[in-house]
Amino acid sequence: MDILSGDLRVFYLAWLVAVTDNLIPDDIPEPLPGIAPLTGSLVAMVEFYNIDCDLVTVAASAADATSDRKLSHRVISQLTDQDKTDLLIRVMEGDIHVASELRQRARAQSKKGNHVHRTAGELRAQADSLRTKRRRAIAEQQKREAERRAQDAEKARATCLKALRLRGQKAWDMIEGEINRRNTQSYDQAVSLLRNMHQIAAEDGCLDTYQKRLDALRGAHSRKEKFIRMINELQSVLKRTITGLNISLDHGLVAKRISTRRSIDASPPCPDMFSLRPAEIG
Question: Which sign, positive or negative, has the C-alpha torsion 50, 52, 53, 56?
């Protein structure tokens, strides 16, 4: 129906397909001064033929004189009362060519203007620029979302560590309880608690005592091969983490970071959290 009504922009889209496939030389001008606004059928054609959306956006960015509402208003206002009456009578009689004739008048007026037809090369360059800006905006948005997720994760981790600090020695009882359940899920939970305990020990300067408690735990459950294997994997990961910190940060910066974190968390100290119980000494 677009072609029958005098809308030739479908041929512009066909030309854009060739531009997308690099079949049109850079110096060839566009067939029409733009393509906006896109009708539903034109949008369907863009989607069906998978035409470069950035190229279509650029093509639609120029003022389309044949379909511009202001131009249509000007064309109608220039009609005499008799012409308007004749056209309305034809519409009432079901003449489907009235709209086509009015568009032809609009196109005739648009050709009188100084409309610059962009070349295929200019359209490609503008589409590339638009694509780059869009990708940059997407990357920046993804970066902001990643930073927000990292902040949320850090807050959740700080809350978890604070709750664990409040438990003191009972945190080790929780670990024992999970181990004694003797299933993969409970072992995972125990290892997760041990990882958090290691973080607290690192912040409190109690890594040596933490290691002694962990060794005692390992000895008490030495027959649980799966749990011991998971403990070994945890220690390997923690060792790499500590090594990385030693390489990238000096002790002064680590102490400053720990001090700052403590002031933010306002967590009460647990001096006995990593102290050995009588049964674990010796």
Answer: negative
DSSP string, the chain: -TTTTT--HHHHHHHHHHHHTT-S-TTPBPSSS--PSPPHHHHHHHHHTT--HHHHHHHHHS--TTT-HHHHHHHHHTS-HHHHHHHHHHHHTT-TTHHHHHHHHHHHHHTTS-PPPPBHHHHHHHHHHHHHHHHHHHHHHHHHHHHHHHHHHHHHHHHHHHHHHHHTTHHHHHHHHHHTT-SHHHHHHHHHHHHHHHHHHHHHT-HHHHHHHHHHHHHHTTT-HHHHHHHHHHHHHHHHHHHHHHHHS-HHHHHHHHHHHHHHHTPPP-TTTTPPPGGG--
Q: Give yes or no for a contact between 18 and 24, defined as CB atoms under 8 angstroms apart.
A: yes
Bond before 37 cis per omega within 30 degrees: yes
- CA pair distance 205, 269, nearest whole angstrom: 12
Place of tokens 């496939």: 21
Average pLDDT over residues 170-199: 90
CA distances to 29, 55, 137 from 46, in Å: 20, 11, 24
Cα distance between residue 231 and residue 109, in whole Å: 82
d(CA 239, CA 236): 5
Name the residue with higher pLDDT: 267 or 160: 160
Q: What angle do CA 35, 39, 41 make, to 5 degrees?
A: 110
For residue range 118-150, what is the model confidence (pLDDT) as tens digits? Answer: 899 999 999 999 999 999 999 999 999 999 999
